[in-house]
Amino acid sequence: MGLITAENISKEYRTGEITVKALKGVSFDIEPASFVSFVGPSGSGKTTLLNLIGCLDKPTDGQLRVADTDVFALGRKESAAFRGSHIGFIFQDFNLMPVLTVYENIEYPLLMVQSRPPAERKDRVEKLLEEVGMADQRNKYPDQISGGQKQRVAIARALVTNPELVLADEPTANLDSETAHAVIDLMKKMKDDFGTTFIFSTHDQKIVREAEIIYSLEDGRLKEKVIQKEAAHA
Amino acid sequence: MRDLFKIAIRNLLRYKRRTLLTASLITIGVVFVLVFISISGSFKAMMVGQITDSMIGHVQVHRKGYVASIDNLPLNLNLKPPMVKKLEEILGAQEAVEAYSPRIKFGGMFSNFVETTNIRLIGVYPERELKTVPLLSSRISDGKAALEKGEIVIPVLLSRGMGVKVGDSIVIVATNQDGSVNGKQFRVAGILENVTGPGGRDGYVHIEDAMEVLRMKEMEISEVAIRLKDFSKLASFTDALESLLAGEVNKQGQPVFEVHSWENLSPFYNIARLIDIMTFFIKLMLIAIVLISIMNVMIMAVYERIREIGTIAAIGTLPGKILSMFVIEGLCLGILGAVSGCILGTVILFLINMAKITFNFGQQKGLILSATVQPADLAIISVIVILVSVLASLQPALKASRMDPIQALRHV
To answer: What is the predicted ipTM?
Structure first.
């Protein structure tokens, strides 16, 4: 069984009298340790789909299993707990806690979400600081580092709990092209090193080429699935 | 928990000016309350001390029904010798009692051989009376308080009105409970100021002289004034004494004694109550200040950090922990305000005491205001501020913890 199994997922939003169908019967399977991209124009449903996979939202219809769990059946607290133990998030705007240092931002999920013991936290954070090349910046605050460095910290924070899945919504949108490629390369390295599945959305064609599997979305429907095991820069 | 405090403190330091302003507002509130309650409390304690220690005593015991008719000074409601004996046995066994003084109170006519007026007289054992109401001697403006037989202390009203001085001879005429009239000549030993100002008509004579004027063969007591070792145990002592005396009943099965604390006997108790009510409302004001200022700051904090809340919620922080983060932030702000307010308030009270502010109460001149604050007051005010801070943070914190991560992450 795949890490993610989506069957005929639909999602509707109501805005006043208007009902917007953001997703229309989307089905797919994603295997563990994959590097997957959802592409499509704005409004195609990428972010909605990532929100559903990330247990931040619930589908109007269909079935969605993530890590052998029917996420549709989870309550609010269970969803939060599930995210905390199975899913990492990388955001377009990095979303680091401004009052925490680089070290503390990476440590946050272990401390506040999983309540891990100090020694384990230290080992994990030190390892990831080295992996993402931020060891020498550990005591800096987010406003003291560059955008690319922030995203490296965000990647480390997403991976620190050893999740099966990391979701990244437009992770390179606020980065220049060189830094964007560096971030994607880092994500791929992390996928190889930790066996974590990365799913990211983007509409940057150069970045898309880095994915092993590309799902194209258009108008809420899955248009195409492209498998390119050997990614462009691999 | 330590890490939640660390995050809360850093978030407070993130908006230094706002934190400082809010903490200052709470500090000012705490200082205001502390200064008010300590000054009003000291004033109240001093006034209660003046009333009880120079006139009433802490507790009084009468024969049942006496207090209801106290304006008439009814001799037929005096305590008979067996009752007095029983009462003295009970009081003598009480550890809490420092001293007690039996009194015979009666009304009479006061004459300086030229003019005559009415007077209320209290027959006492001078030594026992001075042990029970030690400030009585401070009310003597001229002469002495320690009476001897054949001497009288007269109120200043009569001294001035009738031109009587220490050393003069006067005559007291009184009607005893049989209706017969008797008189006795006294030498004026002292002039007595009233506690709360001019107007009092109470004088003192030796208890044996009172018996002689009233032609009492055996001593019949109007009241017994009691002084306690520890004034703070007034309520418990009064209750205990009431219980002890409740068993003493007359032939009709009715209680013989009635026990009253000073609160039931002095109209000043209402002023003391008023001070308590004012203190209560001042504390309410403090609660309002803390509630509004903390709630305002925490609402702002939640509004400004919606995306952060969305982020931590998305990565799996449980709603309870998000709630704790904001509540602890409010708690820290409350602790900061309470601690700084207590320190500043204590310093201000120290300076007030250094200034030795004086005031007058009735005939008592130059009483020095001694504004003291009890550790219990500091603790109570701090606990109020901290609890209200937590309460004020709850609503914004609940809002943060219930936020939909998607909506929060979309917030610009």
So the answer is: 0.87
